[in-house]
Specification:
Layout lengths: L5 E3 L10 E2 L6 E3 L16 E8 L16 E5 L2 E5 L5 E3 L6 E3 L12 E3 L6 E4 L12 E8 L14 E2 L2 E2 L8 E7 L10 E8 L18 E5 L5 E5 L5 E5 L4 E7 L5 E8 L2 E3 L4 E6 L6 E10 L1 E9 L18 E7 L7 E7 L5 E6 L4 E6 L5 E3 L4 E5 L11 E5 L1 E9 L12 E2 L4 E7 L5 E8 L5 E6 L4 E6 L5 E3 L4 E5 L6 E2 L2 E5 L1 E9 L18 E6 L2 E7 L5 E7 L2 E8 L8 E7 L4 E6 L4 E2 L4 E7 L5 H6 L20 E2 L10 E2 L2 H9 L12 H19 L1 H5 L1 E2 L11 H14 L7 H11 L11 E2 L10
Parallel strand pairs: 2-14, 15-23, 24-31, 32-40, 32-41, 42-49, 42-50
Antiparallel strand pairs: 1-3, 3-10, 4-5, 4-11, 5-6, 7-8, 9-10, 11-14, 12-13, 15-18, 16-17, 16-19, 19-22, 20-21, 20-23, 24-27, 25-26, 25-28, 28-30, 29-31, 32-33, 32-36, 34-35, 34-37, 37-39, 38-41, 42-45, 43-44, 43-46, 46-48, 47-50, 51-52, 53-54
């Protein structure tokens, strides 16, 4: 049965050593006992009988019937003296005696109030003097339902196991002394003490505190068990008024560990139950001391240190499922053994309960891909009841910084179909140091696909940058800055454009075939312009090798144009023979190199008039006479027919008109009048040579497939005169007639279509 009873004064006050001045001073109290906490359990609720005996319980000292000694317990304290109003017959069968009489001098079972706990106190009187020579009494209480006997009687007799109807196994007792019997003689005492073994080593060391209010159960030789609580000094002193075995048992709460048991100053095997055998006659004192170590918590959190600074910041979450290990050392940290392991919960929290003293170390597991941003372990010395921590662990999850290095073919700064990775390009990762300077953290080169990757396992400010390479420009950012966040990978792509180049050759294309032949000369000092997106970017002149170049060209739409210089004379013009459009146009892509953007040019002779012109400008018609006819008398043209003046030479306007008018029709062949037509065309060439002079005479006839292609005009004229004068009447002048017609029609053609050119390039001059 739990709980205990004890004796006090009327107001619940304990007296020193439980020694009272008078038997009437002794009251039965219930509820939390001396030194017990207020929430300590008292007797179980219900009705009880009490009695007073000598210490062994063999001699009943109470003098009234048992039913006069009934009380009720509620919520662990005495709340009612049930026997009020009951009466009984004493020695005089005719006189009823009340169980309860109020008043000090004559009263019995007087009532009081425990001022600390609010419990009712009940005076033990009337009872006889104890036969114990030390003046010791014992008060008993047992539940009504467990009383074995007739409560109407004063005594039911004594026999082992039953003490006047009170069964020890269901009873609570308390000893007290009264001076009224004379001076009490010393009684053997059992001192029970409780200390806190702060370091848990099982040794009672100086400075280790006593523990008050600790529950101790004592079972006396009568097998009655009572519960006591250690006082402010951590001890209780028990009167051992009977010979026999006293069982001392401490109550060890679930959060405490018993570390040592000391009996009469000697350490015995650690146990929470000690048997003390009392020899009453020896008048000895006994001692029992228990040392206890209070369990404590070791706790903390496992955090994902998002910024890697080693401190907890708002929003940084706990990490679930991380193993935390607690190790213990008993040799000062030389060797460690695993004490316990646990896993962090959903909030990253972990907790251990430590029940032993010693040196401890709490450590987190090492996990691949994570780095410690704080201590990876913590050591401490266990102290009874002193929680340790929080020991928080901070980790930063490594992450990748990766991307591709692309050749940006169109230079738009974005990836497009056809943009490929660039291998072997240096990429560098920098970290910002405490001084604000960027320091190289690591470097790598792109692989065959242009891919690069870094692993970052620290917080901080970073930037990743490409190394510039000559001849290339960045079409996107050349560097990226970012703040490291635990476990958050970063991706940055770089785009580069290889600067292009366009070069070419300028040559004098005397045969106008668009192909530089081995004998054709290059042209120096010729102006070439580069236009980008409709805006003039650069101007160059061909060098001494006839070459030009535009370099370091970025993306865009380009045109390369030649700028024609001044013509060398009145009847000349520069013409383009290659390329067909007269300029080069292209969209610049990365790495575009063109070294054959060549230009073919020639100076065309623009003079020349048709034989029809000369026929109509002899002065015989409405058109005005061409003054060149004034030169004809001194420069006649020999012909194969007799002229009107009979000299076989055309040497005036009239003879010219005569020759032109006789040209006849234009048949499909050169029989008959074809010869006269040839004479007219040859005369027109003769007049052109007189009009335009040496410039025309030296001009080269260019007409692909013609028999006279590449001849000078003078050479063709001379050949034509020779043919005219020396060939018979049936000679076919068809091809000659076509050549002369082309030359005479030269003045009617536009630039690029003239059949007469200078044999070599003149000096280049620009306005």
């Amino acid at each position: 049965m739990p709980g205990a009873i004890f004796t006090t004064l009327e107001d619940g006050t304990r007296v020193n050593a439980n020694i009272y001045e008078d038997k009437r001073d002794v009251y039965l109290d219930g509820g939390p006992g001396p030194n017990a906490p207020k929430d300590a359990a008292g007797l179980p609720d219900g009705n009880y009988y009490f009695q007073v005996t000598d210490p062994p319980g063999k001699k009943l000292l109470s003098q009234d019937p048992v039913f006069c000694r009934e009380f009720r317990v509620e919520d662990g304290i005495i709340v009612e003296y049930v026997s009020i109003g009951r009466e009984y017959y004493g020695k005089n069968p005719n006189k009823l005696i009340p169980c309860y009489v109020d008043g000090w001098e004559y009263g019995k079972h007087d009532l009081g109030l425990d001022i600390d706990h609010g419990a009712l106190t009940i005076q033990l009187m009337p009872y006889k003097n104890t036969p114990n020579r030390g003046g010791v009494y014992k008060v008993w209480a047992t539940p009504v339902e467990h009383f074995d006997g007739d409560p109407n009687l004063v005594d039911n007799g004594y026999w082992p196991g039953y003490y006047h109807g009170f069964v020890p196994a269901y009873s609570k007792t308390d000893n007290f002394k009264v001076r009224g019997n004379g001076k009490p003689k010393p009684t053997p005492e059992i001192e029970v003490c409780k200390f806190e073994d702060q370091n848990g080593n099982g040794i009672w060391e100086t400075g280790e505190p006593m523990i008050p209010g600790w529950m101790i159960d004592v079972t006396d030789p009568l097998a009655v068990t009572n519960t006591y609580y250690t006082g402010e000094n951590g001890c209780i002193v028990l009167d051992a008024s009977m010979d026999g075995d006293y069982m001392i048992q401490e109550n060890v709460p679930a959060d405490w560990t018993l570390t040592t048991t000391i009996v009469d100053g000697a350490v015995v095997p650690t146990t929470d139950t000690v048997i003390v055998t009392v020899d009453y006659k020896a008048q000895l004192s006994y001692s029992v001391t228990f040392g206890n170590f209070q369990h404590f918590k070791v706790s903390g959190y496992k955090y994902n240190d998002m910024n890697g600074d080693g401190d907890w910041d708002v929003g940084e979450p706990g990490i679930e499922g991380w193993e935390i290990t607690l190790e213990r050392s008993t040799d000062g940290g030389l060797t460690w053994t695993t004490y316990a392991t646990t896993m962090t919960d959903a909030n990253g929290y972990y907790e251990f309960t430590v029940t032993d003293g010693g040196e401890y170390k709490v450590a987190e597991e090492d996990r691949e891909g994570w780095t410690h941003t704080s201590d990876a372990s913590f050591t401490f010395t266990a102290m009874s009841g002193v929680d340790q921590g929080p020991f928080d662990f901070f980790n930063f999850q490594c992450f990748s910084v990766s991307g591709y290095k692309y050749e940006d073919m169109n230079g738009d700064g974005d990836w497009d179909e056809g943009d490929t990775g660039l291998a072997g390009w240096t990429i560098t990762l920098y970290k910002l140091d405490e001084s604000g300077a960027w320091v190289e953290y690591t470097t790598t080169t792109t692989d065959s696909n242009g891919y690069y990757e870094f692993s970052v396992c620290e917080g901080g400010e970073y930037k990743v940058a490409e190394t510039e390479m000559e001849g290339w420009i960045a079409t996107g950012p050349a560097e990226y800055a970012f703040t490291a966040v635990s476990g958050q990978s970063q991706t940055f792509d770089f785009f580069n454009f290889e600067l292009g180049e366009v070069c070419g050759l300028k040559w004098y294309d005397v045969d106008k075939d668009g192909v530089k032949d081995g004998t054709e000369d290059i042209i120096t000092g010729f102006k070439v312009e580069l236009w980008k997106d409709g805006i003039l970017e650069e101007t160059v002149f061909t060098d001494t090798n006839g070459e030009y170049c535009f370099s370091n060209l970025g993306p865009g739409s380009y045109e390369v144009k030649e700028i024609m210089p001044n013509a060398p004379g009145e009847y000349y013009v520069w013409a383009n023979t290659y390329p067909g459009d007269g300029y080069w146009a292209f969209d610049m892509t990365s790495g575009f190199f063109k070294d054959d953007a060549d230009f073919g040019n020639v100076v065309e002779y623009t003079g020349g008039l048709t034989w029809g012109y000369w026929k109509t400008h002899t002065g015989h018609g409405s058109p005005p006479r061409d003054p060149t006819y004034d030169l004809l008398p001194d420069n006649p043209m020999a012909v194969d027919v007799e002229t009107p003046d009979g000299d076989y030479e055309v040497d005036n306007d009239d003879e010219a008109k005569w020759l032109f008018d006789g040209a006849g029709d234009y048949p499909n062949n050169c029989e008959g009048t074809c010869r006269s037509l040839f004479r007219a065309q040859l005369l027109a060439l003769h007049m052109n040579l007189l009009k335009f002079g040496a410039d025309m005479a030296d001009a080269v006839y260019v007409y692909d497939g013609d028999d006279y292609d590449g001849w000078t005009v003078q050479e063709i004229y001379d050949e034509a005169i020779w043919k005219l004068l020396n060939e018979d009447e049936d000679y076919d002048f068809t091809s000659f007639q076509e050549t002369l017609d082309n030359i005479n029609n030269n003045g009617n053609q536009g630039t690029g279509d003239h059949v007469l050119v200078l044999p070599e390039a003149p000096p280049i001059e620009y306005p």
